Amino acid sequence: MKQSLFFALIPFLSSGAAIATPSEGGASHGGVAVVCRNSEGKITEAALLDLFEAANLNDRRLIPISVIDYAEVRGAIRAQTKRFPTFIAHLDQTLEDLKPRYRFLGAGVQLEITRDVFPTITKRGCQIEQLANFRKEGDILVDREIYDALSPVDRLGLALHEALYSLERKWVKATDSLRARALVGEFLSEGHDASVVNSILGTYEFGIPTPGIYYPSYEPSGACQVRLEIEENGLPSVTALTNCQTIIDALVVPTTGKMRMQITDGQKNAWEYRTSPSRLPSGGNGYSVLRMTFATRSSFYLKDIPMSWMGPNP
Questions:
Q1: What distance, in Å, lies between the first and last C-alpha atoms of the chain?
Q2: C-alpha dihedral sign at 39, 41, 43, 48
Q3: How far is 191 from 200, CA to CA, in rounded Å?
Q4: What is the Cα–Cα distance from 194 to 182, expressed in whole angstroms?
Q5: Total-model pTM
Q6: Domains of the chain
Q7: Tens digit of each residue's pLDDT (9 = 90 or more) over 151-169
Q8: Distance between CA 84 and CA 201 in Å, rounded?
Q9: From residue 310, how far is each of 90, 204, 305 by CA, in Å?
């Protein structure tokens, strides 16, 4: 079976009979699977609970089982989350950040079931088993035996589960994986329900100003104008259309070209643009940062300069 690119380089933990008991703040987190075993204890079938629930509880039609990589579904996820244009950037970044954290357990080592699953259904004759566990230390332990029995799309679902549940815990202090599992099921379904995605993402209260032309609030003449756009990656970019260097920051603001903002420490409502070290004054080192902070749908801050809506982009 072709291995998902997400987990191609996961290191192994040494084998042993001990049961892994990772925890985070006294409670463990991580994806689980519906696992069927024969009389000898060998796995005959396994499915990520998120997708098992989507198909059997919510009547979703899952994407083809051969789908293996996030790049194959990113466009569809972005379309599902178009009401929240910056969400895809946070998902991209979280998936990337988590990649090096996965570690396979060795043979004979299994994970204890977490207390945040609350499954509604399973398959007759099978049981819920812990597939992965996100530890307080930051690594994500994976049961190799169960993982090897998963289809490619279930493996992709696990990567999405860990990323989405991580965002859930960060942004809404989630204590169970119910909403993360629902999102995974919708994102990897062909017949998804937009109301489910919108109702969950709506609670994140993303802040992003309306794309358009803006000017410093205390400069009503509009001598300094910037264009705000949302890029394909879901992040905002700002372009100085007229001479804004002296007003905003001569060291950071380029005379031409976009300032492509990046996520600021996973925050939902703040971004930053970093200059290259070559633009620093002689003898300087490191980077200069221009921080952008959401205020309202028609205003934002560049550093401490309030920017107000002037009109739509041409």
A1: 50
A2: positive
A3: 18
A4: 12
A5: 0.80
A6: 5-204 (no CATH), 212-311 (2.40.128)
A7: 999 999 999 999 999 999 9
A8: 7
A9: 28, 28, 15
